[in-house]
Amino acid sequence: MGQLNRALTITKKNILIYYLKGPVIIFGVLIPVFFFLAFITGGKQLPWSFLISGLTAMTVFFTATSVSPVIMPWEAQMNTLERLIASPISIYALIFGDLLASICFSFMITIIPIILALATNVTIMDPLTLILGIILASICFSALGTLLSTPRTNLPSNIMMLSSLIKFPLVFISGIFIPIERMGWGSYIALFSPLTYTMDIIRYSMQGTHAYPINIDILAIIISIIIFLTASVKLHEANIPYRI
């Protein structure tokens, strides 16, 4: 319980400090909005339920990967990471605190497109699956964010550049702008993106259509969570001594 309380304290600290940081607002809020506006401008023949499901998937993805990548390098840059490491807190609790702050931010902002969907008469056919999918996706992409924060740099800009090189291609290969079944050979590449399975769950919940069985989507996201968290813990354990 002691480590859990310390992790929750880290979460509270991260919420108060990082939610309003420039990179978090830009990459977590503004970019999904701009993508969506560009999408609806060029996709006037697409049904609204298709567009809003794409916005929901982009929101959960970008918000979850906007908080956790910047925390470690920012702490190192401000020389506060050394104090955290010197305190009686495990690396697991430290990562969990960062992860939970990212999950909360993602879930909080993702409520907005869901409210927009309901306000524009989009029928959510399977709300329980939608909620489960968003929770799992928030955990998955927050874990990806903690993994992206592992390089030995104390400059948040370097981490954000690296994360952009990974995040933007994923958006275009994961069935957000073009349904998976119409992507041709690109559908094989999409299999390696956890965002693909998130998109499939959300589209099923809002449109009733899906490219893969829903249980496969859920399993793929859970496997991604395990991979990202395991790699994140191992790399942070190896690299934190070089950041203080």
From TrEMBL:
The keyword Metal-binding does not apply. InterPro entries: ABC2_TM (IPR013525), ABC2_TM_bact-type (IPR047817), ABC_2_transport (IPR000412), Nod_factor_ABC_transporter (IPR051784). The keyword ATP-binding does not apply. It is found in: Membrane. Its main location: membrane. One of its GO terms (cellular component) is ATP-binding cassette (ABC) transporter complex. PROSITE patterns: ABC_TM2. GO terms for molecular function: ABC-type transporter activity. Residues 14-239 form the ABC transmembrane type-2 domain. It is a multi-pass membrane protein. The chain crosses the membrane at residues 16-40, 46-71, 91-116, 128-147, 214-233. Keywords: Membrane, Transmembrane, Transmembrane helix. This is ABC transporter permease. The lineage of its organism: Archaea, Methanobacteriati, Methanobacteriota, Methanomada group, Methanobacteria.
